[in-house]
Structure prediction request, 476 residues.
Amino acid sequence: MRTVAARCPGNRDLRCGSYIAGDWHMPADGPVVELGNAADTREPVSRTSHANMAEAERAMQVAVGAWPKWRATAYAKRRSYAAAIARGVADRRGDFAFAISCETGKLLAEAEQEVDAAGVESRVQFDVFDPGPVRDLGEHQVAYEPLGAVLLVTPANFPLAAVLRKLVPALLAGDTAVVKASELTPLTATLLFEVIDAAGLPEGVANLVIADGRDVVPAMIEVQGLAAVSITGSSTAGAAVAEAIGARNIRLQAELGGCNVAAVLADADLDLAADAIVAHGLACCGQWCIGTTRLVVDGSVADKLIVLLLERIGAVELGAMISEAHRNGVEQALAGLAADGATFLTGGKRPDGDTTRHGWFFEPTLVEVSAETDVPEIFGPVLVLQRVHGVDAALAAANDGLYGLSISVFTDDDTVADRFVSAADAGMCHVNLGTGFRDNALPLAGRGLSGRGIPECGTFARDFFTQTKAIYRAGG
Prediction:
């Protein structure tokens, strides 16, 4: 295992705060939270004035008030603002990459990939919306009209990509928005809203609230005029939002937790499987929703696969975890597995060394448990292997869980692969590809505790952030 600590961009004020109605809110007399580099906490990254409940409620009210004028703005004008934001992000690629790396612990290369991927995904949304809000369908038409003011609750692990994935289609649709950014990544959120401010977006169209969601989201949900909530977060947080809005006509889009499975069958290309498992299980230090956690492996090839995995894990380059709390959570999950009789094949602890002592690092871990063990969502650099025997047992094990986000199957038999995919209870299925592989035009969707409502991405983002109107014309 090798580690890399990014350095934060210098020569800038690291003070962060909320952005409401076109103005920054960083009261000097309020509580300020200081954060350090995830890879070296001695290095300061940000000083943030967290929004309180009243400020968060005001931000949502501002978005509601700005919506009538924004919805009346021509699509071409809305698009020009969104395009200016995308260009501004690309122009500041280095600043964003360093901020993401410092705040999340990602390798700098991983952070750069996030910035670039956010740009690609934004272009896909332009393609989706660019035919215009009214589409001809034979003799008749369908109009995609603005929905209203929306609340976008975004995670720490992809503090740029996850925000733009929601915000760009919302703005193109004609919706106003409040971004509730993670309190763990305030610098990335502040950089993005500096870009939004420079783009000249009309006052109140896009607003930023930085705070712990438990402190402010309930107040924002209660604001009259809220049309939709899009949240990426834990299954617990998603359930709480669903319950809070259940009696009101408020749309919910929720991309939630996961414990994703890579099933390796007896005839699989083991080198291919090992490469994909390590790449998708340990990228971003295991802190991404569609990363691999569970390995359901046919017993006839398990020992060979373990050898290949250990070779690759030994050479992996790993960043840090986002926070002490996240690392503690991984340790608690592993302690639970150990109590159930798990065998640790490598890792399982904090690394000991001068380059890792002051950061939230954790060793890449491979652990074997019984096929009957309930594997929790771990959200760290941990691979959990379970041996099974035969295709039926592998499929049953892959579907045995509360989550249903992403599943991969590795096999050389197309018929078996088709059968596996058809029966897999997951929103994303892969054949001889890692669980994290995705196309921005396809839905990012989960089942069970992994998701609710209309999926994200592609045309599904348009469907969530707009309301449709069928237009029939006599003699059309």
